[in-house]
Structures are given as C-alpha cells and as structure tokens.
Write a structure and sequence with these properties.
The protein is α+β, with helices and mostly antiparallel strands. Helices cover 20% and strands 26% of the residues. The chain is built from 3 helices and 4 strands.
Length: 69
Amino acid sequence: MAKSKRIACVGKECVSCGACVKVCPFDAISIYKGLHASVNSEKCVGCGKCAAVCPAGVIQIVAREAAAV
C-alpha cells in the first residue's frame, strides 16, 4: 500500500493526554516516554481523527513532505 500524501504532526505543546492514541484507527500514535505523542510515519494515513480530538489543539495534518523537514 502506498503512503498517503498527508501525515499527522504533533506540536511541542502536547500534553500527552492520550486522546489521539484512543481514536487512531491505524494505531499510528503512541505516547513517547510519557512526554508527548509520537506519530509512526509508516502507519499514519493523515485521516485527521487525532487532530479533531486533541484538546490542546497541537496536532495538524500536513503534507508528508513538509513533515520530513
């Protein structure tokens, strides 16, 4: 399966609440060392469900090329 053109990008202000982890249908997000959400680029399809539930509003769906920078 080809990678999607979009991916979730988590901002530094993440509060590690885990809301995004619970709603991700592809198991693409985890909480890294209890500090912030981390996106697995191999699993993320950029669906936006995580961004929609983020209470801190720090998850954006961006072009995959922009996230690689």
